[in-house]
Amino acid sequence: MYLDGINPSQISRESYYIGYYSQQQNNDIESIKKAYKKIDKTKKSTNKILKKVASLKKQKERNAKKLQKQKKEKTIVIKKINAKLSSQKKKKKKLIKNEKKLNSIVTELIKKIKAESKKKTITEKIHAKKESTSDDKFDGINFKKLKGKLKLPVKGKITKKFNSKRKDTGTRWKGIFIKSKEGNEVYSVASGKIVFSDWLDGYGNIIIIDHGKGYMSLYGNNQSLIKQQGDIIKGGSIIAIVGNSGGNSTNGLYYQLRKNSKPFNPLKWTKLK
Fold it and tell me: In sequence order, what E strands does 41-89 have?
Protein backbone atom coordinates (compact mmCIF):
# COMPACT_ATOMS: atom_id res chain seq x y z
CA MET A 1 0.00 0.00 0.00
CA TYR A 2 2.92 2.30 0.79
CA LEU A 3 4.60 1.44 -2.53
CA ASP A 4 1.40 2.15 -4.40
CA GLY A 5 1.40 5.62 -2.87
CA ILE A 6 -1.80 5.20 -0.94
CA ASN A 7 -2.60 7.85 1.60
CA PRO A 8 -1.04 6.97 4.97
CA SER A 9 -4.30 7.89 6.71
CA GLN A 10 -6.09 5.38 4.59
CA ILE A 11 -3.40 2.80 5.27
CA SER A 12 -3.80 3.39 9.00
CA ARG A 13 -7.55 3.16 8.70
CA GLU A 14 -7.36 -0.06 6.61
CA SER A 15 -4.87 -1.57 9.04
CA TYR A 16 -7.21 -0.79 11.89
CA TYR A 17 -10.10 -2.44 10.02
CA ILE A 18 -7.95 -5.48 9.21
CA GLY A 19 -6.88 -5.78 12.86
CA TYR A 20 -10.46 -5.40 14.04
CA TYR A 21 -11.61 -8.01 11.50
CA SER A 22 -8.79 -10.35 12.52
CA GLN A 23 -9.65 -9.93 16.21
CA GLN A 24 -13.32 -10.54 15.51
CA GLN A 25 -12.38 -13.57 13.46
CA ASN A 26 -10.31 -14.94 16.35
CA ASN A 27 -13.21 -14.27 18.72
CA ASP A 28 -15.56 -16.09 16.37
CA ILE A 29 -13.13 -19.01 16.15
CA GLU A 30 -12.94 -19.22 19.97
CA SER A 31 -16.73 -18.98 20.16
CA ILE A 32 -17.05 -21.78 17.58
CA LYS A 33 -14.52 -23.86 19.51
CA LYS A 34 -16.52 -23.36 22.71
CA ALA A 35 -19.70 -24.21 20.84
CA TYR A 36 -18.07 -27.41 19.50
CA LYS A 37 -16.92 -28.31 23.01
CA LYS A 38 -20.43 -27.69 24.32
CA ILE A 39 -21.88 -29.74 21.47
CA ASP A 40 -19.37 -32.52 22.20
CA LYS A 41 -20.26 -32.42 25.89
CA THR A 42 -23.95 -32.43 25.05
CA LYS A 43 -23.36 -35.31 22.65
CA LYS A 44 -21.56 -37.32 25.33
CA SER A 45 -24.32 -36.51 27.81
CA THR A 46 -26.95 -37.45 25.23
CA ASN A 47 -25.12 -40.70 24.44
CA LYS A 48 -24.94 -41.43 28.16
CA ILE A 49 -28.67 -40.78 28.52
CA LEU A 50 -29.39 -42.89 25.43
CA LYS A 51 -27.32 -45.71 26.88
CA LYS A 52 -29.21 -45.39 30.15
CA VAL A 53 -32.51 -45.35 28.27
CA ALA A 54 -31.40 -48.44 26.31
CA SER A 55 -30.34 -50.09 29.57
CA LEU A 56 -33.67 -49.20 31.16
CA LYS A 57 -35.46 -50.53 28.11
CA LYS A 58 -33.56 -53.81 28.34
CA GLN A 59 -34.22 -53.92 32.08
CA LYS A 60 -37.88 -53.30 31.41
CA GLU A 61 -37.90 -56.10 28.85
CA ARG A 62 -36.14 -58.39 31.30
CA ASN A 63 -38.62 -57.43 34.02
CA ALA A 64 -41.49 -58.03 31.62
CA LYS A 65 -40.11 -61.49 30.80
CA LYS A 66 -39.50 -62.14 34.49
CA LEU A 67 -43.05 -61.06 35.33
CA GLN A 68 -44.37 -63.26 32.56
CA LYS A 69 -42.33 -66.17 33.89
CA GLN A 70 -43.50 -65.47 37.44
CA LYS A 71 -47.06 -65.28 36.18
CA LYS A 72 -46.70 -68.69 34.53
CA GLU A 73 -45.02 -70.09 37.64
CA LYS A 74 -47.77 -68.60 39.79
CA THR A 75 -50.40 -70.19 37.56
CA ILE A 76 -48.62 -73.55 37.86
CA VAL A 77 -48.31 -73.14 41.66
CA ILE A 78 -52.00 -72.20 41.94
CA LYS A 79 -52.92 -75.25 39.86
CA LYS A 80 -50.73 -77.44 42.09
CA ILE A 81 -52.24 -75.90 45.23
CA ASN A 82 -55.76 -76.41 43.87
CA ALA A 83 -54.88 -79.98 42.93
CA LYS A 84 -53.36 -80.53 46.37
CA LEU A 85 -56.40 -79.00 48.09
CA SER A 86 -58.65 -81.15 45.95
CA SER A 87 -56.56 -84.20 46.82
CA GLN A 88 -56.61 -83.23 50.51
CA LYS A 89 -60.38 -82.78 50.40
CA LYS A 90 -60.75 -86.19 48.77
CA LYS A 91 -58.36 -87.70 51.30
CA LYS A 92 -60.19 -86.01 54.17
CA LYS A 93 -63.54 -87.28 52.88
CA LYS A 94 -62.04 -90.76 52.54
CA LEU A 95 -60.58 -90.64 56.07
CA ILE A 96 -63.91 -89.47 57.49
CA LYS A 97 -65.70 -92.17 55.51
CA ASN A 98 -63.26 -94.86 56.73
CA GLU A 99 -63.55 -93.61 60.31
CA LYS A 100 -67.35 -93.71 60.13
CA LYS A 101 -67.13 -97.24 58.76
CA LEU A 102 -64.81 -98.27 61.61
CA ASN A 103 -67.11 -96.62 64.17
CA SER A 104 -70.05 -98.42 62.62
CA ILE A 105 -68.22 -101.76 62.82
CA VAL A 106 -67.22 -101.13 66.44
CA THR A 107 -70.78 -100.12 67.36
CA GLU A 108 -72.16 -103.26 65.72
CA LEU A 109 -69.53 -105.37 67.50
CA ILE A 110 -70.52 -103.87 70.86
CA LYS A 111 -74.18 -104.66 70.15
CA LYS A 112 -73.20 -108.19 69.15
CA ILE A 113 -71.02 -108.62 72.25
CA LYS A 114 -73.86 -107.42 74.51
CA ALA A 115 -76.32 -109.73 72.78
CA GLU A 116 -73.93 -112.69 73.05
CA SER A 117 -73.23 -111.84 76.69
CA LYS A 118 -76.94 -111.80 77.45
CA LYS A 119 -77.47 -115.06 75.57
CA LYS A 120 -74.46 -116.57 77.34
CA THR A 121 -75.83 -115.61 80.75
CA ILE A 122 -79.15 -117.30 79.96
CA THR A 123 -77.37 -120.39 78.58
CA GLU A 124 -75.13 -120.61 81.66
CA LYS A 125 -78.16 -120.52 83.91
CA ILE A 126 -79.77 -123.35 81.96
CA HIS A 127 -76.57 -125.38 81.79
CA ALA A 128 -75.08 -124.41 85.14
CA LYS A 129 -73.68 -127.89 85.65
CA LYS A 130 -72.02 -128.07 82.24
CA GLU A 131 -68.27 -127.44 82.35
CA SER A 132 -66.49 -125.22 79.83
CA THR A 133 -62.80 -124.94 79.11
CA SER A 134 -60.86 -121.66 79.46
CA ASP A 135 -59.93 -121.82 75.78
CA ASP A 136 -63.45 -121.15 74.56
CA LYS A 137 -64.57 -118.77 77.30
CA PHE A 138 -63.85 -115.12 78.03
CA ASP A 139 -65.73 -113.38 80.84
CA GLY A 140 -63.87 -110.09 80.50
CA ILE A 141 -61.23 -108.53 82.75
CA ASN A 142 -61.14 -105.41 84.87
CA PHE A 143 -59.42 -103.44 82.13
CA LYS A 144 -59.82 -100.18 84.05
CA LYS A 145 -57.30 -101.39 86.63
CA LEU A 146 -54.66 -101.65 83.90
CA LYS A 147 -54.52 -97.86 83.41
CA GLY A 148 -50.88 -96.74 83.46
CA LYS A 149 -49.65 -100.35 83.35
CA LEU A 150 -50.10 -101.28 79.70
CA LYS A 151 -47.12 -101.79 77.39
CA LEU A 152 -46.94 -100.64 73.77
CA PRO A 153 -48.09 -103.42 71.43
CA VAL A 154 -44.96 -103.16 69.27
CA LYS A 155 -41.34 -102.04 69.50
CA GLY A 156 -40.80 -98.73 67.74
CA LYS A 157 -41.04 -94.94 67.85
CA ILE A 158 -44.29 -93.03 68.36
CA THR A 159 -44.53 -90.60 65.42
CA LYS A 160 -48.21 -89.61 65.63
CA LYS A 161 -49.92 -88.88 68.94
CA PHE A 162 -53.58 -89.06 69.90
CA ASN A 163 -55.62 -85.99 68.86
CA SER A 164 -52.66 -84.45 67.00
CA LYS A 165 -53.55 -82.66 63.74
CA ARG A 166 -52.88 -84.27 60.39
CA LYS A 167 -50.89 -81.88 58.17
CA ASP A 168 -52.43 -83.14 54.95
CA THR A 169 -56.12 -83.09 55.87
CA GLY A 170 -56.48 -81.17 59.13
CA THR A 171 -58.32 -84.07 60.78
CA ARG A 172 -57.27 -85.43 64.18
CA TRP A 173 -55.58 -88.74 64.96
CA LYS A 174 -57.95 -91.01 66.90
CA GLY A 175 -55.09 -93.23 68.00
CA ILE A 176 -51.29 -93.31 67.83
CA PHE A 177 -48.92 -94.43 65.08
CA ILE A 178 -45.84 -96.39 66.12
CA LYS A 179 -43.13 -96.52 63.47
CA SER A 180 -41.65 -100.00 63.46
CA LYS A 181 -39.64 -102.34 61.24
CA GLU A 182 -41.51 -104.49 58.75
CA GLY A 183 -41.85 -108.01 60.10
CA ASN A 184 -41.83 -107.03 63.79
CA GLU A 185 -44.35 -108.85 65.97
CA VAL A 186 -47.47 -107.11 67.28
CA TYR A 187 -48.64 -108.09 70.77
CA SER A 188 -52.04 -107.78 72.44
CA VAL A 189 -51.91 -105.26 75.31
CA ALA A 190 -54.23 -107.37 77.49
CA SER A 191 -56.23 -110.59 77.45
CA GLY A 192 -59.50 -110.68 75.57
CA LYS A 193 -61.46 -112.02 72.64
CA ILE A 194 -60.78 -111.11 69.01
CA VAL A 195 -64.03 -109.77 67.60
CA PHE A 196 -62.70 -108.54 64.26
CA SER A 197 -59.77 -109.77 62.16
CA ASP A 198 -59.90 -108.65 58.54
CA TRP A 199 -58.90 -106.00 56.01
CA LEU A 200 -60.62 -102.60 56.33
CA ASP A 201 -60.28 -99.71 53.87
CA GLY A 202 -57.96 -97.04 55.32
CA TYR A 203 -56.74 -99.28 58.14
CA GLY A 204 -55.38 -102.26 56.20
CA ASN A 205 -55.25 -105.57 58.02
CA ILE A 206 -56.80 -104.78 61.40
CA ILE A 207 -57.53 -106.71 64.59
CA ILE A 208 -60.03 -105.59 67.22
CA ILE A 209 -59.92 -107.16 70.69
CA ASP A 210 -62.75 -107.02 73.21
CA HIS A 211 -61.41 -106.69 76.78
CA GLY A 212 -64.81 -106.63 78.44
CA LYS A 213 -66.99 -103.90 79.96
CA GLY A 214 -66.94 -101.86 76.73
CA TYR A 215 -63.14 -101.65 76.44
CA MET A 216 -61.52 -102.50 73.10
CA SER A 217 -58.09 -102.26 71.50
CA LEU A 218 -57.48 -101.87 67.75
CA TYR A 219 -54.32 -102.77 65.80
CA GLY A 220 -54.17 -101.63 62.16
CA ASN A 221 -51.80 -101.29 59.20
CA ASN A 222 -50.50 -104.86 59.69
CA GLN A 223 -48.73 -106.86 57.03
CA SER A 224 -50.48 -110.03 58.12
CA LEU A 225 -52.81 -111.23 60.87
CA ILE A 226 -51.84 -114.17 63.11
CA LYS A 227 -55.02 -114.52 65.13
CA GLN A 228 -58.53 -114.86 63.79
CA GLN A 229 -61.97 -113.68 64.83
CA GLY A 230 -63.27 -115.63 67.82
CA ASP A 231 -59.82 -116.46 69.25
CA ILE A 232 -59.37 -116.05 73.00
CA ILE A 233 -55.95 -114.56 73.76
CA LYS A 234 -53.83 -113.57 76.71
CA GLY A 235 -51.99 -110.29 77.24
CA GLY A 236 -48.69 -110.33 75.34
CA SER A 237 -49.90 -112.81 72.71
CA ILE A 238 -48.58 -112.35 69.18
CA ILE A 239 -51.54 -111.29 67.07
CA ALA A 240 -50.07 -109.76 63.88
CA ILE A 241 -46.96 -108.75 61.90
CA VAL A 242 -45.94 -105.11 61.24
CA GLY A 243 -46.40 -103.72 57.72
CA ASN A 244 -48.03 -100.80 55.89
CA SER A 245 -51.24 -102.28 54.51
CA GLY A 246 -53.19 -99.17 55.56
CA GLY A 247 -51.57 -97.04 52.87
CA ASN A 248 -49.05 -95.28 55.14
CA SER A 249 -45.72 -94.23 53.67
CA THR A 250 -43.82 -95.95 56.49
CA ASN A 251 -44.09 -99.32 58.18
CA GLY A 252 -45.65 -99.31 61.61
CA LEU A 253 -48.68 -99.99 63.75
CA TYR A 254 -51.81 -97.88 64.10
CA TYR A 255 -53.05 -98.44 67.66
CA GLN A 256 -56.30 -97.36 69.32
CA LEU A 257 -58.05 -97.85 72.64
CA ARG A 258 -61.81 -97.38 72.92
CA LYS A 259 -64.51 -97.36 75.59
CA ASN A 260 -68.05 -97.94 74.35
CA SER A 261 -66.84 -97.19 70.78
CA LYS A 262 -65.26 -93.81 71.75
CA PRO A 263 -61.47 -93.52 71.27
CA PHE A 264 -59.31 -92.27 74.16
CA ASN A 265 -55.58 -91.53 74.57
CA PRO A 266 -53.63 -94.84 74.76
CA LEU A 267 -50.52 -93.10 76.12
CA LYS A 268 -52.33 -92.18 79.35
CA TRP A 269 -52.80 -95.91 79.91
CA THR A 270 -49.28 -96.91 78.86
CA LYS A 271 -46.12 -97.36 80.90
CA LEU A 272 -43.44 -96.19 78.45
CA LYS A 273 -40.37 -96.90 80.64
Answer: none
